[in-house]
């Protein structure tokens, strides 16, 4: 008898899980809150590692398509001093396929393929332990029962409370994201500064990075150490009011006010670097949250977690990779297991916790060094991880 399996969330974790099950002819219900694939901007670009995300794509049978869509040249990385001096200018060899970049939207479409996703299904709660299985509650009042519910619903998972009381906490680092369009024609100087991949500049407790996506789109990330409510009192929290001329708290929806606050925060940095902020369009406020590094839970029959729902960590290039590999591995184990899934899920969780715990430690230490009091630490970290 086929088990009733649902995955909550159609991000990298949920779609990879579903796609691999689909490949093994095992039915799966994909429940996604967004009303349609294009309901919101898909976000920036992801680098997929050979031994993680690419391995997952191989298990899903779409590695060749990924290779055609991805940008190996996007691995290029330039590091500047705050005065604009180039400190590192690393470019991949043409045959380097270790960590190519792919736009999130393209990855989503690749994984979606012919999958039958149920869009607009907003899960509010998951209740294990009923006689007939695990009960899933939806925002519209409906309920459905499954034998296994996989929570792949990201940082603010509604499935997570069914297995653990852990909730994400603020890292002390906030990110404000903006973007540039048609950079090659509208901002050729910035296009040259960014190159084919990314440029990053590290100062004391702050960093500014820009990353090329396809089609001349660039995402710019300003990162800085600040209390969560930094914008409510710029003078007290950031020592900024005098220079920004803003007497009251910053309205995060006010594009020009956010821009001038950021320009004040990065005051003194080289003009070409600050142009990344000057030409940015909208600004999105993204405080960085994480789950505890060694986050595990007592196994709950019929429910498990994948990806950010299980192990939210600083965005240092591992989260989507882990999410996808976990999705692929769990799907393969489920497809191969006859009957009861408890042992399969238990074994999967042990493996996920061990690997994710290692990466959570690495990325947590990495964030401390990249956005910290000593900018030479950021450069040292780059030299440690980047092949020369
Ligand atoms: C700026 C930035 C850059 C990053 N760069 C990289 C990178 O280069 N490489 C990398 O590996 N990682 C990167 N990451 C991390 C990566 O984005 C995440 O780890 C990854 O998206 C996690 O995938 P996921 O499927 O677990 O969760 P998500 O991507 O968050 O997907 C969750 C899905 O669940 C849906 N959902 C949420 N709640 C519900 C609900 N109640 N009911 C139904 N559906 C729901 C959401 O709509 C969403 O589609 C980056 C993160 C950031 C912020």
Automatic annotation (TrEMBL):
It is found in: Cytoplasm. It comes from the Bacteria. It holds the Pfam family FAD_binding_3. NADPH binds at residue 40. Its cofactor is FAD. It catalyses: a tetracycline + NADPH + O2 + H(+) = an 11a-hydroxytetracycline + NADP(+) + H2O. GO terms for biological process: response to antibiotic. Keywords: Cytoplasm, FAD, Flavoprotein, Monooxygenase, NADP, Nucleotide-binding, Oxidoreductase. GO terms for molecular function: FAD binding; monooxygenase activity. GO terms for cellular component: cytoplasm. It is an enzyme of class 1 (oxidoreductase). The keyword Metal-binding does not apply. Its main location: cytoplasm. FAD binds at residues 47, 104, 308. Residues 5-182 form the FAD-binding domain. The keyword Iron does not apply. Monomer. An FAD-requiring monooxygenase active on some tetracycline antibiotic derivatives, which leads to their inactivation. Hydroxylates carbon 11a of tetracycline and some analogs. HAMAP family: TetX_monooxygenase (MF_00845). Consists of an N-terminal FAD-binding domain with a Rossman fold and a C-terminal substrate-binding domain. PANTHER family: FAD DEPENDENT OXIDOREDUCTASE DOMAIN-CONTAINING PROTEIN, MONOOXYGENASE ASQM-RELATED. Belongs to the aromatic-ring hydroxylase family. TetX subfamily. This is Flavin-dependent monooxygenase. It comes from Sinosporangium siamense.
């Amino acid at each position: 008898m086929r088990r009733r399996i649902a995955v909550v969330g159609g991000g990298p974790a949920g779609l990879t899980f579903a796609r691999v099950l689909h490949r093994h002819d095992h039915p799966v219900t994909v429940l996604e809150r967004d009303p349609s694939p294009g309901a919101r901007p898909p976000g920036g670009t992801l680098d997929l590692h050979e031994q993680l995300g690419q391995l997952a794509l191989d298990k899903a049978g779409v590695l060749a398509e990924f290779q055609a869509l991805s940008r190996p040249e996007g691995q290029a990385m330039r590091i500047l001093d705050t005065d604009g001096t180039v400190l590192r200018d690393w470019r991949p060899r043409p045959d380097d396929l270790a960590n190519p970049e792919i736009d999130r939207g393209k990855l989503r479409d690749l994984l979606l393929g012919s999958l039958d996703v149920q869009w607009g299904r907003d899960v509010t709660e998951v209740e294990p332990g009923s006689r007939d299985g695990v009960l899933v509650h939806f925002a519209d009042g409906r309920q459905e029962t499954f034998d296994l519910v996989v929570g792949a619903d990201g940082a603010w998972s509604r499935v997570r409370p069914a297995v653990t009381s852990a909730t994400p906490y603020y890292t002390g680092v906030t990110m404000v994201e903006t973007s540039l369009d048609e950079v090659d024609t509208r901002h050729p100087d910035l296009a040259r500064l960014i190159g084919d991949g990314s440029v990053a500049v590290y100062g004391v407790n702050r960093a500014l990075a820009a990353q090329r996506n396809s089609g001349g789109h660039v995402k710019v990330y300003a990162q800085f150490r600040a209390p969560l409510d930094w914008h409510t009192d710029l003078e007290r929290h950031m020592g900024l009011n005098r220079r920004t001329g803003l007497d009251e708290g910053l309205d995060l929806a006010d594009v020009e006010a956010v821009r001038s606050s950021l320009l004040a925060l990065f005051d003194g940095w080289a003009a070409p670097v600050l142009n990344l902020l000057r030409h940015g369009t909208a600004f999105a406020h993204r405080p960085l949250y994480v789950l505890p590094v060694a986050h595990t839970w007592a196994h709950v029959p019929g429910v498990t977690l994948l990806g950010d729902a299980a192990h939210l960590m600083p965005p240092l290039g591992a989260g989507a990779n882990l999410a996808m590999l976990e999705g692929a591995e769990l799907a393969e184990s489920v497809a191969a297991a006859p009957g009861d899934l408890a042992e399969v899920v238990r074994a999967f969780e042990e493996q996920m916790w061990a690997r994710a715990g290692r990466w959570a430690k690495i990325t947590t230490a990495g964030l401390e060094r990249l956005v910290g009091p000593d900018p030479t630490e950021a450069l040292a970290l780059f030299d440690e991880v980047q092949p020369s």
